[in-house]
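Chapter summary example.
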Amino acid sequence: MTKLTLGAHPYMLGFEQLERLLERSAKSGNEGYPPFNIEQTSDNSYRITLAVAGFAERDLAVTVEDRQLVIRGRQSDDNNGRIFLHRGIAARQFQRSFVLADGVEVGAAVMENGLLHVDLTRAQPETVVQTITINKSSS
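The structure predicted for these 139 residues follows.
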């Protein structure tokens, strides 16, 4: 039995890039750290919230690279001579990637109570009706 992929389906013309995006997101290597939520805040907007306790704004970077939202965290190692008897708060670097659909734009990024909120909006595409002229064959 032949496996029918999204890009090879006869009614799904031009969706090969969508299939590549799905494969790329599956291989993004995201672990479970830091935990995050994705919520729909309106019909055309979303919010990604990451739990980044212990990170300052200067320790975080939010970028868009090739239609991917990439959030990186790297804490500076400033122990200042402190001796830990137990260290249960994670102080490791991370990278989280989210594939963005065409038309989705990244808005504000806000840090609040150890949570990083990143707002996204999706532009409404214009409805375009195009009439195609049917030409008479010359044969």
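To summarize the output: The two ends are 41 Å apart (CA to CA).
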